[in-house]
Amino acid sequence: MKRSTVVIRPSARALSRQASSQSFLLARSSALTSRQRRLYSTHPPNARLNLPIDYATTPLLAHTSQAALSNPELPASVRNGTTKRMNLFQAINDALSTALAEDESVLIFGEDVAFGGVFRCTTKLAETYGGDRVFNTPLTEQGIMGFAIGAAAEGMRPVAEIQFADYVFPAFDQLVNEAAKFRYRDGAGGRSAGGLTVRMPCGGVGHGALYHSQSPEALFTHIPGLKVIIPRGPVQAKGLLLAAIRSNDPCVVMEPKILYRAAVEQVPTTAYELPLGKAEILKEGKDVTVVSYGQPLYKCMAALKAAEQDFGVSVELIDLRTIYPWDKETVFNSVRKTGRCVVVHEAMVNAGVGAEVAAAIQEDPETFVRLEAPVARIAGWSIPTPLVFEQFNLPDVTSKCYLTLGLADVYADGMPRDIRRHQKGDEFLRDLSMNSGILKQSMLHSSRRGVDWLMGIVLDDIILSVFLV
Amino acid sequence: MFSRAVRLSRAALPIRVASQRVPIAARRSVTTNAAQAQVDKSTIPESEDEPFTIRLSDESFETYELDPPPYTLEVTKKQLKQMYYDMVVVRQMEMAADRLYKEKKIRGFCHLSVGQEAVAVGVEHAIEKTDDVITSYRCHGFAYMRGGTVRSIIGELLGRREGIAYGKGGSMHMFTKGFYGGNGIVGAQVPVGAGLAFAQKYTGGKKATVILYGDGASNQGQVFEAFNMAKLWNLPALFGCENNKYGMGTSAARSSALTDYYKRGQYIPGLKVNGMDVLAVKAAVQYGKQWTVEGNGPLVLEYVTYRYGGHSMSDPGTTYRTREEIQRMRSTNDPIAGLKQRIINWGVATEEEVKGIDKAARAHVNEEVAAAEAMAPPEPTAKILFEDIYVKGTEPRYIRGRTLDEVYYFN
């Protein structure tokens, strides 16, 4: 391994072509320098599209008090109140504090929560509400969950924290076989574990490797009897978490850990709930529906902005918020309007939320007949989370997807923008044979554009909106 | 049950060396002093390889339904020096990791074992290469002692291809021959260790598995499930709780109903060991291995140790314990200083020679760390991202997070 750079190796043929052009080599050398610095899968240098998310300006967060209070889902009393700037963990802390204050039966426990928790979500709660209501548990996930279920069955409202979603698996049996089935099996007895809320941080964090970056939400969506909730920011986190705590169903609240400090917005100071099982349309559009939840929403927003600007398409963005049971009506209505749908999540693609949404869309006759393209999924690959290559796995702004039948196209970061939908769409559809293999077509096309495909590396410089032909 | 344990441990007392410092009636506990072993200096041979007998402190062990190991240990000068060298290398390696982390060259989660070196080193000096070791996420020292090189361990932390796990695992997930990790899930390695022990028993040979977990992990249900299987099938398993007093930020007493972790096996005999004294660890594990491979079934050991640093790199380690406590352990119970003192006092090596060992260990680590830092960062290719997961040919044909200017293209 003498090679000093991280470049993708060009073929011999490509090299000889390069050698023939001195100016070309010179032009590459400056890029090499930037490559050398990129030891981790951080944001690409010189990227036009895959830029770091600017949480300070994203329209997905309420940056002003006015924006936060204009939310029509909030009751009038809240909208007439005040707001405070909070990040995600502070909003969660606020919700937990509210729940503890308003209801004696609310308990909070988990590993290290009395010290504030590893992500600071429970800061000062033990001091304020006492060690008998906010307390540390041993490192015993299965025990924590069973304990919480027992407490909930007696009418308490336990909020159990699993320190990382990756640690929840020992507790899986308790969630699946006890919490979710409690009401069903008790029947007329009327007991349930409905007061149970489980919180856990999930998702990529940049370098979590095998056991600190997973997104196991789809596993819980397979269990009737649980509600699975993923907030995208502080306002949501507070409202959804309070709703979950007050809800009489066992709820799993998964918090994208990368947003704990990154996502900051104005949050109403008074207590409020946001509806569970209800999606939110973040942006209306007419050509394609993008369905997502949690952190990838920010990337979707960046992608659709680029798509709208570059291709003149109009994209609708839906935040599922509750991923089980999810809001089919909102999604179906949107897809009936646009005819196209992309589902985006970090968790691996197989048997994920995307699969469920896609299947439901095609099962619904009224929505199916309106489809103009297969429902696409952009999700993590079917791999364990890599250590240094996390960004190479997570969906990004330019993730490839095939929205139209058989059409694959390449839109490269920094390449001339000549594949505009309105100019070429119909031509491409005619050119590409439906059954010749999407990838092959895209490769042919890319080769024409001079991308080096010989190493079998296809860059992810393919923007989803290209396919909205 | 516990009264029986107390009775047994009293009954075992006469076996111990004559000098009892603690009244029998008083509740005794294992010392964490690292320099209490003694030797009759006249018995120390000239030769490096000739064994001589040292006498361990009578506070080195506590037992539960088990006769204590002999309070004597045969060692050679060479072994003592090697143990010292190994502990210094492990500590230097951890310090290097600390530095690289603070320089932001190592990212992610990283747990250091500074202060706990005597356990990894003592265990390895008591077992054979054919035995197995499996441990928790605080695994750098074990990976080194099992045969991993410093460069491959630091390379792993840096995410390099030449790292011990191809740069894919990082701090918590290291594997080498006879070493099954490194596991990021608290307690998950314990039943896996029982399976390793079963395979050893099944395939025959006098082999054992050393299974380590922390005081925090000892409350995981699967630890008890593993205990039961190991005893039921009489497996050659040496369960070992590395009790460093804190599971993350929660002290043992706040998380555990019974902090005598060596008694946690209930129906499995237990042995509590001074985990700051590498010689006591060696003596205990040596004894435990012999005991278990003779068909006596599993053993639950407890290594009483201490970590100087925080739980991980993001924990300063001072919010849940006093600085004085850390300072006291460092200054009076340090495993490396303890062994050093004895080596010099016993005349096994002169102060100059010990300094030479220090220097050699430091130079070795520096050289290896430099080599690790010089390793090329992994190529961001699909091959690396998808290898060992997808059947060849079925991989996704592209990776994410790249831009066009990061490839060569022609035309």
If you had to describe this structure to a student in words, what would you say it looks like?
Chain B: Keywords: Magnesium, Metal-binding, Mitochondrion, Oxidoreductase, Pyruvate, Thiamine pyrophosphate, Transit peptide. Chain B: InterPro entries: DH_E1, PDH_E1_Alpha_Subunit, Pyrv_DH_E1_asu_subgrp-y, THDP-binding. Chain B: It is found in: Mitochondrion. Chain B: It comes from Chaetomium thermophilum (strain DSM 1495 / CBS 144.50 / IMI 039719) (Thermochaetoides thermophila). The complex is a heterodimer of chains A (469) and B (411). Chain A is an alpha/beta fold and 469 residues long. Chain A folds into 2 domains: 204 residues, 3-Layer(aba) Sandwich (Rossmann fold), CATH 3.40.50.970; 132 residues, 3-Layer(aba) Sandwich (Rossmann fold), CATH 3.40.50. Chain A is built from 18 helices and 14 strands. In chain A, the strands form 3 sheets. Chain A has a 7-stranded mixed beta sheet with strand order 3-2-4-5-7-6-12, sandwiched between helices. Chain A has a 5-stranded mixed beta sheet with strand order 9-11-10-13-14, with helices on both faces. In chain A, α6 links the parallel β2 and β3. Chain B folds into 2 domains: 338 residues, Thiamin diphosphate (ThDP)-binding fold, Pyr/PP domains (Rossmann fold, 3-Layer(aba) Sandwich), CATH 3.40.50; 29 residues, no CATH class. Chain B has 411 residues and is an alpha/beta fold. In chain B, α7 links the parallel β5 and β6. The N terminus and C terminus of chain B are likely disordered. In chain B, the strands form 3 sheets. A 6-stranded mixed beta sheet of chain B has the order 2-9-10-6-5-4, sandwiched between helices. A two-stranded antiparallel sheet of chain B has the order 1-3. In chain B, strands 7-8 form a two-stranded antiparallel ribbon. Chain B is globular and about 70 Å long. In chain B, α2 packs antiparallel against α11 and α3 crosses α9. The interface between A and B is large, with 87 and 63 residues.
